[in-house]
What we know:
Layout: E1 9-10, H1 11-23, H2 36-47, H3 52-55, E2 62-63, H4 65-81, H5 85-89, E3 91-94, E4 97-100, H6 112-117, E5 130-134, H7 140-148, E6 153-158, H8 161-173, E7 180-184, E8 200-205, H9 212-217, H10 220-223, H11 238-250, E9 251-260, H12 265-271, E10 278-282, E11 285-293
Parallel strand pairs: 5-6, 5-8, 6-7, 8-9
Antiparallel strand pairs: 1-2, 3-4, 9-11, 10-11
Amino acid sequence: MDPEPQQAFTVDQCINHIAQKLAAANLHYGHGAIDAQSEALWIVSKQLDLSPTEALNHLEDQISADQQLKASAVADTRISTRKPLAYILGEAWLMGVPFFCSEQSIVPRSWIAELIIDGSLEPWLPADGNALDLCTGNGSLAILLALSCPDIHVSACDISMPALSVAARNVDRHGLKSQIELFDGDLWDAIPEPNEGNIFDLIICNPPYVNATSMNALPAEYHAEPALALAGGEDGMDLIRRIITQAPDYLSERGAILIEIGNEYENFKKAFPQIPAIWMEVSAGEEQVLLIQAEDLR
């Protein structure tokens, strides 16, 4: 039973109550929260106008009856719609940074974000360097890159104008319009020709890579996202083939391209047995994200 308005709950009690509701509903996670408890924290922190991390410092505080009821209503919507929580709240967090979120683009998430924040990509990002975020979606990776390396220039592109509108809002939200330039178009078609000076020291890309069999088996939460941002063809490599084929034209001599492939390690190895990829360690393991140096593509 939901907490009555006159009943005094602490933040911690409210989080636990919401978590129990979510856990009983057989939901699927992975859109900014890993389980019912972390998603409940996110729901309650939103009602407190705090980040999830900040809310952890207020667990023993009292939460108002109105905030309790609003948090419970959000949980009910999450359960009844099976939509990712980020769409319901209109906001997502990635590496502690908030992003506006809507169903026009995929929910911000990528193992590449870890590598940006921990400094693993700095060897390919000289001062005043140029970086490109292919398939930028909501713009979250481009923004994290710009925030982490304020001296570089970041280009970001996507085929979806609705997604780019979300990216533009996020770029503006973080005051990065002078550092991030957005382009509309299909992969390399969006970027001016290399002979016009568009050579990049680092290209990052979290492309659509889910293979056809896996797409059909995805839970409802993932089907709420644009299929354009997920589906990678029969083996998940359709866009990645196009990306790798033309990447050398846009990379500097000592540049590199970083690509997230999720659970498609075996399909990547079959598709590109000749490429000496460097597999980057992230919290999900060593087969999710790869880096290819320009010299190994030419």
